[in-house]
Specification:
The structure holds 3 protein chains of 3 kinds.
Chain A lengths: L1 H20 L10 E3 L2 E3 L3 E8 L4 E7 L1 H12 L9 H26 L4 E2 L3 E11 L5 E8 L2 E9 L5
Antiparallel strand pairs in A: 1-7, 2-6, 3-4, 3-5, 3-6, 4-8, 7-8
Helix pairs in contact in A: 1-3, 2-3
Chain B lengths: L3 H22 L4 E4 L12 E9 L3 E7 L1 H12 L8 H22 L7 E2 L4 E11 L6 E8 L2 E9 L1
Chain C lengths: L1 E5 L3 H13 L3 E5 L2 H11 L5 E4 L8 H10 L8 E5 L4 H10 L3 E4 L4 H11 L9
Parallel strand pairs in C: 1-2, 1-3, 3-4, 4-5
Helix pairs in contact in C: 1-5, 2-3
The chains are: A alpha+beta, B alpha+beta, C alpha/beta.
């Protein structure tokens, strides 16, 4: 069950980002347990889901990658990663990635999950800490910067 | 955007937080609307938040300076502020959000505003910003105990 | 007296430690249900009370409680839930699963001490 609950997010982030922004993510082929604090790469977005089980996806990326993806999606040249439009684009990507993964999980496991809208946060040298959840991280590289996804489910998995 | 229902629910949260701080840390806090007070000079460097799943999904958050978090957690645990690690502070304010949200969840359990809790998360860093759509209803309160200040925010997302 | 606190929040464990020290007890700690099972496997003969959170990574408190009550080695150890879950339905679930006491956060340190004493069947604690 582990693979069925975590794997769809990896597949989804690779496919959706390629499809929406033509950016290839490389190296995102395994997930590792993430202990304690997570130092943010710069721009992070959290989306939670509830239903048959509760969980959340944290998508974290370097500002250069966030800017490139926003510029591609919106067809404009933004230079400030904290521009509301850039952060909205990051939120939207997370929303689509999560929606796609949740649909895969719902179809396979009949979990009746639904998403809440994403929340994006930015901050200098930000550190994220999520107690109460054990989580798995997958790292990826792109030519525009690094990205990672961190997936967590409440209760026992497997 | 002003929203009377959200304002009322926010009252439950701030009252619950006041009670948690009174019971567990011994602080009496006063609460005022952020819009009805002078702009704060406080620069939050630690924040905890929780997303609530309900008829309208909502985020609640608490933001404060590290020194405020350290004093609150010190009073809650009996451990000196200088002996608390960053992880203790993250953990402590996430627990504050968890307790506050747990109480309000029970208060609203048989009403149309009932919601499900999710796991709280904490963020530390400089110039922290949580971003959601600006046009959505949101509420902001400043909670003060002496020199200490906590910003409570709640928004439909 | 030996008390096992099972809570993923280090802060809550520190608060509980303060109360247990007032009672001259010894606190064992576990940050998850799986850690609790490890501690119990080694120490169950010495543990007088388990204080158990509900929402934790991995196994939930309720799942831990069900495992405890299904294992004859641990079954007789009293369990007090210490949690933010305060809806009647969940309290009933925990009691039905075998919890002997239920303490909802937030609590004062005095209340925690009193409830620990009650759970241990040691009567009322009076602050000196």
């Amino acid at each position: 069950m582990d693979r069925e609950l975590y794997g769809p997010f990896v597949t989804s982030v690779i496919d959706i980002i390629k499809e929406m922004t033509d950016v290839e993510i490389e190296g995102m082929d395994s997930m590792v347990e993430e202990p304690g604090e997570i130092p943010s790469l710069g721009i992070s977005s959290i989306i939670t889901f509830a239903g048959g089980k509760k969980g959340r996806l944290l998508m974290d990326m370097e500002p250069t990658l966030a800017l490139h993806m926003a510029n591609t999606i919106l067809g404009e040249q933004f230079h400030d990663v904290k521009d509301h439009m850039v952060l909205s684009a990051v939120a939207e990507i997370n929303n689509i990635v999560s929606g796609n993964a949740i649909t895969l999980i719902n179809n396979r496991l009949s979990m009746n999950l639904r998403l809440a809208p994403p929340v994006v946060f930015a901050g200098k040298d930000a550190i994220i800490s999520i107690p109460k959840l054990s989580s798995q991280t997958a790292w990826g590289n792109t030519v525009h910067g690094r990205i990672r996804i961190n997936v967590a489910w409440e209760g026992s998995v497997g | 955007m002003h929203n009377i229902e959200l304002e009322k629910i926010a009252e439950f949260f701030t009252e619950s937080l006041s009670q948690v701080l009174r019971m567990m840390a011994g602080f009496e806090v006063t609460s005022i609307d952020c819009n009805q007070s002078d702009e704060t000079s406080m620069k939050p460097s630690i924040m905890a938040a929780m997303i609530l799943h309900g008829a309208k999904d909502t985020i609640v958050s608490l933001a404060m300076e590290h020194s405020t978090a350290a004093v609150i957690i010190a009073y809650m645990t009996g451990v000196l502020p200088e002996e608390l690690s960053q992880q203790d502070l993250f953990d402590g304010i996430a627990e504050l959000v968890n307790i506050m949200a747990g109480e309000v969840k029970t208060m609203l359990s048989n009403t149309p505003h009932h919601f499900l809790l999710t796991s709280p998360f904490s963020i530390g860093g400089q110039n922290l910003e949580l971003i959601y759509k600006e046009s959505l209803p949101q509420v902001c309160r400043r909670l003060m105990a002496g020199e200490m200040e906590i910003i409570f925010q709640m928004a439909h997302i | 007296m030996n008390i096992l606190s099972v809570d993923d929040s280090a802060i809550v464990r520190k608060i509980i430690r303060g109360a247990v020290e007032v009672l001259d007890g010894n606190l064992l700690e576990a940050a998850s249900g799986m850690e609790a099972m490890d501690v119990l496997n080694k120490e169950y003969k010495n543990i007088d009370l388990i204080l158990l959170d509900w929402n934790m990574p991995g196994l939930t408190g309720l799942e831990v409680l069900e495992r405890l009550k299904a294992d004859k080695r641990f079954r007789s150890i009293p369990v007090m839930m210490v949690t933010t879950e305060s809806e009647r339905e969940n309290i009933v679930k925990a009691i039905q699963a075998g919890a002997t006491h239920y303490l909802v956060k937030p609590f004062t340190i005095e209340e925690l001490i009193k409830r620990i004493m009650e759970s241990l069947g040691r009567g009322e604690y009076r602050d000196a």
